Predict the structure.
Amino acid sequence: MTEAEIDHELDETDRQILASLNEDARKSYRDIASELDIALSTVSSRVNQLEEAGVIQGYMPLVDPLALGYEMTAVISVKISRGKLIEVQDDLAERANVFGVYDVTGEFDSVVLARFSSRMTLNDFVKNVLAHPDVEHTTTHLVLNTIKEEHRVPVEIEAEAGSD
């Protein structure tokens, strides 16, 4: 679901619930209700509404990629043949080790973020991408050190809105 498809105006209670779930998505509705001093039924109905509206798109564990053998992260810029952007991006997005595909401005058309278990798997991936008939060329950057990689979206609530 894209941001254009989400038709739900967030109020302060929604934001507080989201902030609480951002801290711990496994937190019980009862704990959230107690923390926010609202009724359990309010938390339950609000979360259901947020899910139905596509604001909450799912729940997942935050897994350390190294624990699964992904020792390398690559940022790959891709130049795509005119008129084939969506097809190529959709193809790249289907690959299991790809965790981000972005439509960008500038010299390249798309940026792909992917994880690899070895130099050989990275090499095979890049050569496979370059073999795509609608890919003109790529530039690959290897991540040497990850300073920050946050998957949660920050939720501003009124008490925090001016604290940047």
Observations:
- Residues 40-52 form the longest helix (13 residues).
